[in-house]
Design a protein that fits this description.
Shape: globular
Radius of gyration: 30 Å
Oligomer: single chain
CATH architecture of one domain: Alpha-Beta Complex
CATH class of one domain: Alpha Beta
CATH superfamily of one domain: Peptide deformylase
Strand content: 15-25%
Largest sheet: 5 strands, antiparallel
Low-confidence stretches: 1-36
Number of strands: 9
Protein backbone atom coordinates (compact mmCIF):
# COMPACT_ATOMS: atom_id res chain seq x y z
CA UNK A 1 0.00 0.00 0.00
CA UNK A 2 1.42 3.33 -1.09
CA UNK A 3 1.85 6.08 1.48
CA UNK A 4 -0.26 9.16 0.79
CA UNK A 5 2.28 11.96 0.40
CA UNK A 6 0.66 15.39 0.72
CA UNK A 7 1.93 18.81 1.70
CA UNK A 8 -0.58 21.11 3.40
CA UNK A 9 -0.56 24.76 2.28
CA UNK A 10 -2.65 27.59 3.67
CA UNK A 11 -3.63 29.38 0.49
CA UNK A 12 -6.05 32.09 -0.57
CA UNK A 13 -9.21 30.69 1.00
CA UNK A 14 -10.03 29.39 4.44
CA UNK A 15 -9.71 25.85 3.13
CA UNK A 16 -6.13 24.47 3.10
CA UNK A 17 -4.74 23.42 -0.29
CA UNK A 18 -2.98 20.09 -0.80
CA UNK A 19 -0.43 19.39 -3.53
CA UNK A 20 0.04 15.81 -4.71
CA UNK A 21 3.68 14.80 -4.94
CA UNK A 22 4.17 12.86 -8.17
CA UNK A 23 6.97 10.39 -8.77
CA UNK A 24 7.86 11.21 -12.39
CA UNK A 25 10.02 8.07 -12.71
CA UNK A 26 7.11 5.69 -12.22
CA UNK A 27 5.82 4.04 -15.39
CA UNK A 28 2.17 4.52 -14.42
CA UNK A 29 2.55 8.31 -14.05
CA UNK A 30 0.06 10.07 -16.34
CA UNK A 31 0.41 13.40 -18.16
CA UNK A 32 -2.38 14.87 -16.02
CA UNK A 33 -0.35 14.13 -12.91
CA UNK A 34 2.66 16.01 -14.31
CA UNK A 35 0.68 19.15 -15.17
CA UNK A 36 0.08 21.71 -12.39
CA UNK A 37 -3.37 21.78 -10.87
CA UNK A 38 -5.39 25.03 -10.88
CA UNK A 39 -4.54 25.36 -7.19
CA UNK A 40 -0.83 25.05 -7.90
CA UNK A 41 -1.02 27.55 -10.76
CA UNK A 42 -2.75 30.02 -8.48
CA UNK A 43 -0.10 29.74 -5.80
CA UNK A 44 2.79 29.81 -8.27
CA UNK A 45 1.34 32.94 -9.88
CA UNK A 46 1.07 34.57 -6.46
CA UNK A 47 4.67 33.67 -5.57
CA UNK A 48 5.88 34.91 -8.97
CA UNK A 49 4.04 38.22 -8.64
CA UNK A 50 5.32 38.79 -5.12
CA UNK A 51 8.87 37.93 -6.17
CA UNK A 52 8.73 40.31 -9.14
CA UNK A 53 7.28 43.00 -6.89
CA UNK A 54 10.24 42.66 -4.53
CA UNK A 55 12.71 42.64 -7.45
CA UNK A 56 11.03 45.76 -8.86
CA UNK A 57 11.32 47.57 -5.52
CA UNK A 58 14.96 46.59 -5.27
CA UNK A 59 15.66 47.75 -8.82
CA UNK A 60 13.86 51.04 -8.23
CA UNK A 61 16.05 51.72 -5.21
CA UNK A 62 19.14 50.53 -7.07
CA UNK A 63 18.25 52.69 -10.09
CA UNK A 64 17.62 55.69 -7.86
CA UNK A 65 20.98 55.28 -6.12
CA UNK A 66 22.73 54.78 -9.46
CA UNK A 67 21.03 57.82 -10.99
CA UNK A 68 21.93 60.04 -8.04
CA UNK A 69 25.54 58.85 -8.24
CA UNK A 70 25.61 59.33 -12.01
CA UNK A 71 24.16 62.83 -11.76
CA UNK A 72 26.87 63.86 -9.31
CA UNK A 73 29.52 62.39 -11.58
CA UNK A 74 28.02 64.11 -14.63
CA UNK A 75 27.86 67.50 -12.91
CA UNK A 76 31.54 67.11 -12.01
CA UNK A 77 32.61 65.98 -15.49
CA UNK A 78 30.62 68.41 -17.64
CA UNK A 79 31.23 72.12 -17.40
CA UNK A 80 29.74 75.18 -19.03
CA UNK A 81 32.14 77.05 -21.28
CA UNK A 82 32.01 80.77 -20.55
CA UNK A 83 32.40 83.79 -22.81
CA UNK A 84 34.92 84.55 -24.34
CA UNK A 85 36.10 80.93 -24.71
CA UNK A 86 36.74 80.23 -28.44
CA UNK A 87 34.39 77.26 -28.78
CA UNK A 88 31.43 79.61 -28.28
CA UNK A 89 32.37 81.28 -31.58
CA UNK A 90 32.79 78.04 -33.49
CA UNK A 91 30.31 76.90 -36.15
CA UNK A 92 29.34 73.36 -35.16
CA UNK A 93 29.41 70.44 -37.58
CA UNK A 94 26.28 68.38 -38.25
CA UNK A 95 25.78 64.93 -36.76
CA UNK A 96 26.39 62.53 -39.64
CA UNK A 97 25.48 59.32 -37.82
CA UNK A 98 23.51 58.85 -34.62
CA UNK A 99 25.74 56.45 -32.72
CA UNK A 100 25.46 55.15 -29.17
CA UNK A 101 27.95 57.85 -28.18
CA UNK A 102 25.70 60.56 -29.65
CA UNK A 103 22.60 59.16 -27.94
CA UNK A 104 24.39 59.00 -24.58
CA UNK A 105 25.65 62.56 -25.03
CA UNK A 106 22.13 63.80 -25.84
CA UNK A 107 20.73 62.25 -22.65
CA UNK A 108 23.66 63.58 -20.61
CA UNK A 109 23.23 67.08 -22.05
CA UNK A 110 19.52 67.06 -21.23
CA UNK A 111 20.17 65.77 -17.72
CA UNK A 112 22.79 68.48 -17.22
CA UNK A 113 20.31 71.13 -18.41
CA UNK A 114 17.71 69.87 -15.94
CA UNK A 115 20.18 69.80 -13.06
CA UNK A 116 21.38 73.29 -14.01
CA UNK A 117 17.75 74.48 -14.08
CA UNK A 118 18.16 76.22 -17.41
CA UNK A 119 15.57 76.46 -20.19
CA UNK A 120 17.84 74.98 -22.83
CA UNK A 121 21.41 74.04 -23.62
CA UNK A 122 23.56 73.47 -26.70
CA UNK A 123 26.40 71.01 -27.30
CA UNK A 124 29.13 73.65 -27.78
CA UNK A 125 28.34 75.14 -24.38
CA UNK A 126 29.78 71.98 -22.81
CA UNK A 127 32.68 71.75 -25.27
CA UNK A 128 31.19 69.44 -27.93
CA UNK A 129 30.98 71.22 -31.33
CA UNK A 130 28.09 69.25 -32.80
CA UNK A 131 24.67 70.48 -33.90
CA UNK A 132 22.69 69.24 -30.91
CA UNK A 133 20.41 71.22 -28.62
CA UNK A 134 18.12 70.29 -25.75
CA UNK A 135 15.12 71.99 -24.20
CA UNK A 136 14.25 71.52 -20.54
CA UNK A 137 11.62 68.81 -20.11
CA UNK A 138 9.58 71.14 -17.92
CA UNK A 139 8.89 73.31 -20.98
CA UNK A 140 8.26 70.54 -23.48
CA UNK A 141 5.98 68.81 -20.99
CA UNK A 142 3.73 71.86 -20.88
CA UNK A 143 3.92 72.60 -24.59
CA UNK A 144 4.21 69.02 -25.92
CA UNK A 145 7.43 69.69 -27.80
CA UNK A 146 10.62 67.64 -28.34
CA UNK A 147 13.39 67.98 -25.77
CA UNK A 148 16.30 66.64 -27.86
CA UNK A 149 16.88 68.10 -31.33
CA UNK A 150 19.70 66.92 -33.57
CA UNK A 151 20.72 69.01 -36.63
CA UNK A 152 17.89 71.51 -36.06
CA UNK A 153 17.07 73.90 -38.92
CA UNK A 154 14.67 76.86 -38.90
CA UNK A 155 12.71 77.74 -42.04
CA UNK A 156 9.62 79.70 -43.12
CA UNK A 157 10.30 82.33 -40.47
CA UNK A 158 8.15 85.43 -40.17
CA UNK A 159 7.02 88.08 -37.69
CA UNK A 160 8.79 89.36 -34.59
CA UNK A 161 8.86 88.56 -30.90
CA UNK A 162 10.76 89.89 -27.88
CA UNK A 163 11.86 88.07 -24.77
CA UNK A 164 14.28 88.84 -21.94
CA UNK A 165 17.00 86.25 -22.32
CA UNK A 166 19.97 85.04 -20.29
CA UNK A 167 22.63 82.40 -20.88
CA UNK A 168 24.71 80.02 -18.76
CA UNK A 169 27.75 81.02 -20.83
CA UNK A 170 27.16 84.66 -19.85
CA UNK A 171 26.16 84.36 -16.19
CA UNK A 172 24.42 87.37 -14.71
CA UNK A 173 23.72 88.99 -18.10
CA UNK A 174 20.13 89.54 -19.31
CA UNK A 175 18.70 91.57 -22.17
CA UNK A 176 15.62 91.98 -24.35
CA UNK A 177 16.18 90.06 -27.58
CA UNK A 178 14.14 90.41 -30.75
CA UNK A 179 13.60 87.19 -32.67
CA UNK A 180 11.26 85.82 -35.34
CA UNK A 181 7.68 85.32 -34.24
CA UNK A 182 6.79 82.09 -36.08
CA UNK A 183 8.73 79.41 -37.94
CA UNK A 184 9.14 75.74 -38.87
CA UNK A 185 11.73 73.67 -37.03
CA UNK A 186 13.13 70.54 -38.70
CA UNK A 187 15.29 68.15 -36.68
CA UNK A 188 16.17 64.52 -36.07
CA UNK A 189 15.39 62.62 -32.88
CA UNK A 190 17.78 60.16 -31.20
CA UNK A 191 16.39 57.35 -33.37
CA UNK A 192 17.36 59.23 -36.52
CA UNK A 193 13.79 60.06 -37.53
CA UNK A 194 13.26 63.48 -39.08
CA UNK A 195 10.45 65.72 -37.89
CA UNK A 196 9.14 69.16 -38.80
CA UNK A 197 7.03 71.17 -36.36
CA UNK A 198 5.42 74.57 -36.66
CA UNK A 199 5.77 77.24 -33.98
CA UNK A 200 2.97 79.68 -34.69
CA UNK A 201 3.45 82.30 -31.98
CA UNK A 202 6.72 82.57 -30.08
CA UNK A 203 5.22 85.12 -27.66
CA UNK A 204 2.84 82.43 -26.40
CA UNK A 205 5.28 79.51 -26.47
CA UNK A 206 8.70 79.84 -24.82
CA UNK A 207 9.90 76.74 -26.72
CA UNK A 208 10.19 78.98 -29.81
CA UNK A 209 12.54 81.40 -28.06
CA UNK A 210 14.65 78.64 -26.53
CA UNK A 211 15.31 76.77 -29.79
CA UNK A 212 16.25 80.00 -31.57
CA UNK A 213 18.65 80.90 -28.75
CA UNK A 214 20.25 77.43 -28.76
CA UNK A 215 20.54 77.23 -32.55
CA UNK A 216 22.42 80.53 -32.45
CA UNK A 217 25.01 78.78 -30.26
CA UNK A 218 25.48 76.16 -33.01
CA UNK A 219 26.40 78.99 -35.37
CA UNK A 220 28.86 80.64 -32.98
CA UNK A 221 26.49 83.44 -32.10
CA UNK A 222 25.46 84.70 -28.66
CA UNK A 223 22.28 86.54 -27.74
CA UNK A 224 24.29 89.70 -26.98
CA UNK A 225 25.33 89.82 -30.66
CA UNK A 226 21.79 90.54 -31.84
CA UNK A 227 20.47 92.96 -29.22
CA UNK A 228 19.85 96.65 -29.81
CA UNK A 229 22.57 99.27 -29.31
CA UNK A 230 20.80 100.45 -26.15
CA UNK A 231 20.65 96.93 -24.70
CA UNK A 232 24.24 96.26 -25.76
CA UNK A 233 25.45 99.37 -23.91
CA UNK A 234 23.75 98.12 -20.73
CA UNK A 235 25.31 94.67 -21.19
CA UNK A 236 28.82 96.10 -21.64
CA UNK A 237 28.42 98.11 -18.44
CA UNK A 238 27.20 94.99 -16.64
CA UNK A 239 30.13 92.90 -17.91
CA UNK A 240 32.62 95.58 -16.87
CA UNK A 241 31.00 95.74 -13.45
CA UNK A 242 31.25 91.96 -13.04
CA UNK A 243 34.91 92.16 -14.05
CA UNK A 244 35.55 94.93 -11.53
CA UNK A 245 36.13 97.63 -14.15
CA UNK A 246 34.69 101.17 -14.15
Amino acid sequence: MNEDKTVPYQGFSEEPLTFQKVDTHREDTTLEQLLPTPEQEKVEKYIYEKTMEQISKYNEQEDKEFLESYQKELMNEMRIFLYPEPILRQICSPVEEITEEIVKFCHDLHLYAKKSRCLGLSAPQVGYPKRIIVVNEMIVGMEKRPHILINPVISNASGKSKYKEGCLSLPGIYAQVERVGSFDITYKDIEGKEHTERVEDVSKEIFGTVVQHEIDHLNGRLFVDIISAYEKDKVIKKINKLRGKK
